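Morning run. Coffee first, then this:
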Amino acid sequence: MNIKKFQISIDSSLKEALYKIDKNQEGIIYVCSSDNKVLGVATDGDIRRKLLEGAKLSNNLHEIVNKKFVWKSESSSREEILKILDSKIKSIPIIDEHGRLVEIVSKNYLPLKNEESIIVRSRSPVRISFAGGGSDVTNYFDGNKGATLNTTISLYSHALLKKRNDNAISVRSLDLNSLAVAGSLKEFLLLKNSFGLIQAIIKIINPDFGFDLEIYSDIPIKSGLGGSAAISAAILGCFNQLRTDEWNLHELAELSFQAERLYLQIAGGWQDQYATVFGGLNFIEFNKDKNIIHPLRLPKDVSLELEESLVLCDTKISHESGSIHVDQKEQTKKIEILNRVKSNVELAYIMRDMILRGKLIEFGKSLDKTWKIKRSLSTQISSSYLDQIYAGAIDNGAIGGKILGAGGGGFFLFFVPPFNRLKVINYLINLGLNVKPFIFEKNGLKSWKTRQHYTS
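And here it is:
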């Protein structure tokens, strides 16, 4: 709305006021000082009454100015304004902090606010795996059936994205304690740094705009909890929010796999990508033609009891999953190692049935079996120190457990009956290890938008 049609000087005449009111067709005029501050209002009714009292059209407008009038500030909500317009008031002046008229809204004119800048946020959970490790790699299920049993937990990788008005790119990683800055996508992809996984994800996304991206995780890198897949998913989730044709969950998992396994040539399996994107407790079957995710639903008391029976422990030893997977790949060429992986797959099916039937003690004992099979697949999976940690946990009351991820370090998971829990935790703490509390996370990747002003 053209506010000049509604402004008039305090020194104007009644005739000039009537002329402006006739032009704006709203029956009102806003009387302003020489520096454009609103002093009051005058309506066509006010002027007619003054003329009936004997005033002349040449009389000064200040004689009828009403200084008590309804107005709103720029920060007033749309709800407030609508409620006023829903009464007898036809129009409302919007006045800035200096008292100047900036807008006029009416029953017929209430424009939408301009779109505000937004940021996109996401988080994707890490997973703990129970059984089937080693069978989710392509070279194995190319000729055999693979299966894993895992669940996501309340530890996440997070991402925060904001579009820029130029082509520059800024990526900050708290996990790597590093910042990468480039003037363009091409320049960013050529940077030589520790951002290889992030560069691979960005290369796949191929955004046509500049952006600021921040990434951080609740767990240390190389933890064996599928953190790299969670980071990839979190970044993909942010960019997915800006797409008209959003990627579905299968596509997100596949893109994450493509970045890590194909672009970076890091050996490994498929379960981490599916686990973090889909979330929850899943039994995943791997075949040459397709992978199938079976969500499992447990009775509430079984789920809570399982949750309370598990102890997650950081060994403080980072592991190189890629080299371990390479060694495993070579080892599975041996028939005896291949048969052990098959045994682990069979155990995954048995443990799936145990957990669905609430046979948790048997489930815990089976974790011990999976660990013994797993550690026999490669000499890099365990060590004398890791064996010592495990044996001590068993001596203190755990009935089963396993190293998570590829092995060689990272996190141990133990199954502990109720009255042994504190004893096992104290044992681990006395070794100088970190026990990490968690609960099960039923959801996978989550991403959302929020207005920029929310963060200021």
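Residues 119-435 form a domain with the Ribosomal Protein S5; domain 2 fold (CATH 3.30.230.120). Good start to the day.
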